[in-house]
């Protein structure tokens, strides 16, 4: 959820269509998860997120999981744009 949201936010911030070239791909640089209460196994889970910050190649995403109307988990993802050195040659921009 975090890296996909980061990529979508970066495309929007750059006023570019999704998946336009060069491709904007993001990887997780940091992940913080706070478990607030037990998460039921039988309930449907709702995952929500929002962009907290965009700064250069870094996007910070807040996310939370809701079960039976209650937030069970809160997290924060720091995603950074994937460096060209991590991309397969055919995807490098």
What would you note in describing this structure?
The chain is mostly beta strands and 93 residues long. It has one domain: Roll (Thiol Ester Dehydrase, Chain A). It has one helix at 2-13; strands at residues 26-35, 45-55, 58-67, 70-81. The protein has a 4-stranded antiparallel beta sheet, with helices on one face. Strand 3 and strand 4 form a beta hairpin. The longest helix is centred in the first third of the chain and has 12 residues, at 2-13. The two termini are 24 Å apart.
Break the fold down into its secondary structure elements and pairings.
Blueprint (H helix, E strand, L loop, with lengths): L1 H12 L12 E10 L9 E11 L2 E10 L2 E12 L12
Antiparallel strand pairs: 1-4, 2-3, 3-4
Radius of gyration: 15 Å
CATH superfamily: Hotdog Thioesterase
**Biggest sheet, strands in spatial order?**
1-4-3-2
* Main sheet record: 4 strands, antiparallel
Count of discrete alpha- or pi-helical segments spanning 4 or more residues? 1
**Percent of residues in β-strands:** over 45%
Derived structural class: mainly beta
Sequence stretches where pLDDT stays below 50 over 5 or more residues:
none
Mean pLDDT: 90
Q: Find the CATH topology.
A: Thiol Ester Dehydrase, Chain A
Number of domains: 1
